[in-house]
Design goal:
The chain contains four helices and six strands, in the order H-H-E-E-H-E-E-E-E-H. It is α+β, with helices and mostly antiparallel strands. The termini are far apart.
Length: about 130
């Protein structure tokens, strides 16, 4: 599969995870997150799959996040690294707020699932 096609698919899956109402569609969690999923948040704290599911269920599904510079690195036929910036809605487009995100997506039996995610907060110091 071509890199640009994979990038479009993975970006769609990332948005689906962030912008779906997971209380109304609980099956999406198992569809999109691997069983051994882990996350490192923008404070350097490690979170389990259950921790992240709790946050996903409480987030506002009507908030539309702004992705910037979305790209993927194809590591193997079944492993992709997504790299992008994410800005909360309503923040000014200053480049000094938001976070840089990386996600590892694994394909198993034809389905892509997020296996790992890390967020790094962008500060005024790191933006320069």
């Amino acid at each position: 599969m071509e890199s640009s096609v994979i990038a479009g698919l993975i970006q769609h899956l990332e948005l689906k995870l962030l912008q779906s109402d997971l209380t109304a569609h609980p099956g999406l969690i198992d569809e999109l997150l691997a069983e051994d999923f882990e996350e490192i948040d923008n404070h350097g704290q490690l979170h389990s799959r259950d921790d992240v599911i709790g946050w996903l269920r409480q987030k506002d599904p009507h908030r539309h996040w702004v992705f910037k510079d979305f790209r993927v690195k194809v590591l193997t036929d079944n492993l992709v690294l997504a790299i992008y910036s994410l800005q909360k809605p309503g923040q000014p487009d200053t480049g000094s707020m938001g976070s840089i995100r990386t996600s590892l997506w694994q394909r198993h039996e034809g389905h892509w699932k997020m296996a790992f995610h890390q967020a790094t907060k962008i500060t005024e110091t790191s933006a320069s």
